[in-house]
Amino acid sequence: MHIVDHRYGKERVRLTTLDRSVSPHRLVVCAVGISLEGSFEPSFTDGDNRNVVATDSMKNTVYVLAREHGVTSIERFALLLATHFAETYSAVSSASVDIEQEVWRPIEGQDAQHAAALMRASTELYLASAHHDGTSGALSSGIDLLQVIKTADSGFSDFHRDRFATLKDTDDRLFATTLRVEWTLARADVDATQDQEFRHRVRSTLLEVFATHNSRSVQETLHAMGTAVLESIAEVAEINLQLPNQHHLLANLEPFGLDNENQVFVGTDEPFGNIEATLSRSS
Question: Is the pLDDT of residue 189 over 80?
Fold first, then answer.
């Protein structure tokens, strides 16, 4: 028997860091995932663990490097971790690090933000992924669980018809989705402030296009959103968008003698459509 490929690591390492040197305080609440590839076959085949970096050590590395370097952005911290594992251990051929960050913001007072009181703004997550192959690193940023809905200017019609098709054409439907978006920059040598700036610009561009685009399909709106990011932010080299189509079905009110002109809906979790595409400046 042959091992085709293998990897191992630690998932969901919970990390909270606090910087009181700034006002308002900078709070970072995140979960870190680490995955290593390399010369670990003997641990699988012979129980030989001499090359294995214990996953408990991986967890401790997250906390030690956070204390020594701080977390100015999850992108810089992910790259720091991936570089550490790839360059520190000779058995490691490549290291990947994924970070999900919760969105916390200062509570707004009557006249100003409170310096030491924060609230979670939404279920939205910020994403960062880093990979290091022992020679160089690659980095991407993203956003997940960004919930949006269009209540007008959305339709779906003229799709393929066969004996399995029961869906009716419509030019007036709710378009609800929970965005997951990831992008890479043309160059990775940016600082933590630029990481945050690019995320804000990508997010604002996506939301503006979603709000204003006259959607004939989720696919068309996805393409318009990704295109707008590439056209307006020259530093973004590639962007991947996932837009699940979270259906809201018209409630049947006929048994009660009532019509329903797109006013009362039943939101459904399953099944749902899933639309994904990657847009790049190069072919």
Answer: no
